[in-house]
What does this fold into?
Amino acid sequence: MAMRARHKIRAPRKALDDFDTSWSTLAASLREIHTKNASSLSFEELYRNAYKLVISSRGNDLYECVKDLEREWLENVVRVRLAASVSPSLLLDRTPADTLDQSNNERRAAGERILAAIKEAWEDHQLCMGMITDVLMYMDRVICADHHKPSIYVASMCLFRDCVLRAPMRPDSDVSLLDVLKSAVLFMINLERTGHIIDRQLIRRCIYMLEGLYETATEEESAKLYLTVFQPMFIETSRDFYRAEGERLLQLADAATFCRSASSRIAEEGERCRFTLSPLSERGIQGVIDTELIEKRIADVIGLAENGVKHMLDHDRVGDLANVYVLVARIDKTKTTLTLAVQRRITELGDEINATAKTFSHPTPTPKLNESHGPGKKKGDDKDKPVNQQTVAAVKWVDDILNLKRRIDDIWKRAFESDQGMQTSITNSFSEFINSNARSSEYLSLFFDENLKKGLKGKTDSEVDALLENGITLLRYVKDKDLFETYYKKHLSRRLLMKRSVSMDAERQMISKMKMEVGNQFTQRLEAMFKDMAVSDDLSASYRDYVYRMGDQDPKRVELEISVLTSTMWPMEIMSSKDGTAQLPCLYPKEIETVKQSFEKFYLNKHSGRKLSWQPSMGTADIRAVFRRSDGKIARHELNVSTYAMIILLLFNDVPIGESLSFEEIRTRTLIPDHDLIRNLQSLAVAPKTRVLRKDPTSKDVKPTDQFFYNQDFQSMFTKVRIGVVSSAGNKIETQSERKETEKKMNDERGGSIEAAIVRVMKQRKKLVHSQLITEVLTQLASRFVPDVNMIKKRIESLIDREYLERISDSDPPAYGYVA
Amino acid sequence: MSSSPSEYVTLLSGDGFEFVIPRSAACVSGTIRRMLDTSNNFSEAISGRCVLEDLSGIVLEKVCEYLCYNEKNKDQNVVPDMEIPPELCLELLMAADYLDSTLLFSCIPCQKALAYKDE
It folds into this structure.
């Protein structure tokens, strides 16, 4: 094709030299390539030959000739060679069976041999075809474009598939190399699953081949041989394997082991797909494990009696629970099975706590005649015990729940990945069993009471905070918050009046926490109580000033510290006498009476139109007492007693030594209600360590016929003696009758709240359908308590009777209107 | 052949001219690239010499000029046109086809080539 002349260039002559000559040189060279002798060949020569054939419109013939050449090569050389390396053992048994190790080993060796041979043949074929494609590049360019044929490379891959892999290996059987390959690979996977080590790399190579081959010449992704031929079988055998595995594990192992094995199987299969097989199968095989190992078995595993989830929860097996969680999360977004198991266990544990509290606190019908004031104080006689025990039980109940809650929360965080849904159901179960205990509000309030009274001593701010926070967490679960408020108010009032609170800061903190949790309305009255206390402090101070300015410098004058309480804010009923009858004012000794009158005058001057009523049952007094002992010594003690006890003791100031007062005398001279009188006399004359009075006869009970003497021989190792009488001064669990009282009051109060809510709603809406009204009222009140629907209905009736509402006639569904 | 192939390759024309150009420049042509591919390991890859039997020295010279021109300007937007004498156009077109170098195609003014052919 050299240039003939500068000015005259003809188009190159078509090389019509015979096709056969060119082809035969080309064919010889291609064979050389197959036998790996390419280095002796000139690319340019081969290329030029092919180029020329294509240029001379013989491309198509060339294409077919190359294909024939390849087919011939694959059939006569490659296939024969591979068939020779297939050992008979591979042909005999095509399903992986757990036969003896001996034959396993044999089979495995044979398998590896054939895999290696296939791999080599495949890689050679790929390499050679790569070279041939390069040489025939020009042909591909022209032929593929003009004739819509697959490139020679693709065509030769199809040939490899059909002539090597798919063709029967022996004339007498229809077992193809592909079948052998599949069963060998599956066999090895099985070996690996049972703990043997296999040549992953080799398998991966063979899988590469299956991934590189397609069912069609157009090479769609989904037509990969791997997907059409190998994967279904792989999934199938895996399913069988894991079905058996699930059964085996369930029989042999405990739940923890089961989950561990399942998790490690999942990881193992993932790794297998990445390193041994193809990532394409990962989803499929995980699906198999999910169904066979998890979905079908997990419910059984979780429910296993002796080592299921229950056992794990009980023994804080966080790791195991995390395993279970991960497994369940794989098959179920909502994790129902696990959630239910956890819920069941929580409710069980909660019921246990409730039951313990109940057995602990059998309400004792015996009147609480002689009690020491704190549940923690073990002094006092045996009769205290039941009641104290109840209080202890209440506090223990809360503690138990908090412990359980802490444990479950910890598990939830560490094992359940702080799962939202789980949290909701955990919260539900807590709330369920807490509310199933009718006394939960009272118990919780007692818990706060205990802690605010003494539990906080010596604790740092953050500890206090944590403790209160814990309590508040439980408050969140309590449905009847109004009931809690009642109890809390009652307990708080005692703490405030008796100055039993350890730290006012903590009290305030508590209130603000409750405010955040339950709302303003809830804490309003509690805050008012605090305000009263603050106002009273000021009042006492200014009264002292007032007295000082009056110039009444009587050194014997009694100092007064007063708490003026707003009667609507404070739980007055606990201060009044038990039977609820109006309290007759008792007779004060004259020293006291003057102070009382002077204060009344002072107070009413300041705030005219108010009425003060005195509550001696709630007060305390410090008195100094002198005992002339029989041994001649004189002992002085400061006694801290209740107001009533003070009145009683002051009577003895006027009684000559050695003489006595009878019960009747004391009663008529003081007018202290019987109930309180008996209690106070008991603590003065019966309680072993505070026997300031002597009683005749010495018995435990106080009878109207008893005589009382001033006990000159009183002994105590302390100068200050606290004589803890005080009726129901300690905050403790209520008795049955008290509870009924509280419940009745509660119901009345609720009735009020419901009516208020109904009116609020109706005022706004003017007209409302019955069911809607009920719903609205329920939502409005939800933060305080869960009202009974019947109660709401009754309240609506009553409001209609009182003409706040009216029934709208001929309305369907029934509706009400607001009467302005 | 050392383990790392030399940076330059030699292209030989059918009539015996030799051109030594950078390997990277030469490999713009698909044909030459495949020829020199070490994984295929044909004799050209081993020796680093490509005999292009069908190309004359003149055409190959122009081809090499183009290859170097292309290498030099490959990253630039505005490049000077390469000067191609009309009488070489047709043969260059064929060479471009043979060498599987579409870029070279685009440089050759085809009308000129065809016009020249018609003459």
